[in-house]
Structure formats: C-alpha cells, structure tokens
Design brief:
Helices cover about 20% and strands about 25% of the residues. The protein is of the alpha/beta class and about 210 residues long. One of its GO terms (molecular function) is hydrolase activity.
C-alpha cells in the first residue's frame, strides 16, 4: 500500500495534480485549519476526496472540536478515537495533542490520550495515526531542542509496536525515527507544500516530496 501523508495544512487548499505517484490512500493527520472555521475544513476535505482515493483524517490541536463532525460528513473516514480496517490493513488514530502552552482548541491530558488509544489499538494494528508525535524522538523536537511530544503515544507505541506511526504537529521536526519495530514518520507542514509518500510494501519506505 502506498499512502500520501498530509498534515498541518493550516487552511491551505492543496492541489495534487502535479503528484506523480500512484496513491492507494490519503491520510490527513491533523491541523486541517488554523483555529477554524469548520467550513474551511469541509472545503479542504472535499477537495482531497475529489481525487477518488480513500481519505482518512483526524483533527489536530489547532482544529475546532466540531471538525470531527465535518470529517464524518465530508465523505472522509474519521479516524479520531477510532479503529478501522481498509484493504486488509488495521489502522487506528487519535487527534489533537497533549497540552501545549498555547491553549489550542483540541488538547487532551496524557491520561485521556493513553486510555483512549488503549481502547482501540491491538497487537495487529499496522498504522497508528496521531497528530502529536511520540515524546523524546527526532520528530518531536522544537527549535530549542526540547522534546514536546506525547508521553502516552510513546508508551502505546512501545507496548503495541504498530508497523508505522504517522504523525505531525511539530513543523520543524519533519523526518523519521524508530521506536523498536515501529517507524515514526512526521510528514511535515503541508501548508509549505511538504508531504510524504509512505510505501508499506515490505519494509517501510518514505519519500519526501513537495507539491503546490
């Protein structure tokens, strides 16, 4: 399966016409908007679904809570606090983030993140989609060098070892890291045209691309 990983659009309407890749699935890992409005989230998701590829999405910490309802109404598959199976691959997700200093609209305490994921993940989960990256990795470092990811997401990964964790949130930490058997991919800020193509056939491979 080849996945287009998109995150941190922050209100930007992406055009995928110059994407020279055969994609099986689009995964949007949050921050579709920049504090709303939900109508903009709907417009962006409708555009992505127009490419006739299944789209899975969850809100980020900068999205309004009502974005969950918009995802479900737009023809996109909601994976916030949800587990699904698509094309034989088990996927689960949790949006928003652990608490930030900025009091953004969609934040959760670590205990709630852990308990929610514990209820939906299983040992045969292939893809864990989160907005926040796991704590103390290469993909959760802000410019100061501090690690600001979620300790609960890290704990879940250590306990369940999904094949891949697709995450976002920390724009400057676009990249790949490894926790045990889990490959962690922060796909980068799509509002700058930065996205990732993730190939799950055999080993996890990631190709960094830029789109308009």
């Amino acid at each position: 399966m080849k996945i287009l990983g998109i995150s941190d659009l922050h209100g930007k309407l992406l055009e995928l016409n110059n994407l020279n890749e055969e994609i099986d699935l689009i995964i949007v890992s949050g921050d579709i908007t920049d504090f709303g409005p939900v109508e903009l989230a709907e417009k962006i998701l409708n555009k992505l679904t127009s490419y006739n590829v299944p789209v899975l999405a969850l809100p980020g910490n900068c999205d309004l809570p009502e974005t969950v309802d918009i995802i479900e109404k737009s023809g996109t598959i909601n994976i916030h606090n949800n587990a699904i199976e698509i094309k034989g691959i088990k996927i689960c997700g949790f949006g928003g983030s652990n608490p930030t200093p900025f009091d953004t609209p969609f934040e959760f305490q670590e205990k709630e993140i852990y308990n929610s994921l514990k209820n939906i993940i299983s040992k045969d989960t292939t893809i864990l989609v989160t907005h926040a990256p796991p704590y103390n990795t290469k993909v959760d470092q802000i410019q100061s060098g501090d690690n600001v990811g979620s300790k609960s997401i890290r704990k879940i990964i250590e306990e369940y070892q999904p094949k891949v964790n697709i995450c976002a949130h920390i724009h400057e930490a676009r990249g790949i890291d490894q926790l045990g058997n889990t490959t962690i991919i922060n796909t980068g800020p799509a509002f700058e045209g930065k996205v990732a193509v993730i190939d799950l056939d055999g080993e996890v491979n990631c190709k960094w691309i830029k789109i308009r």
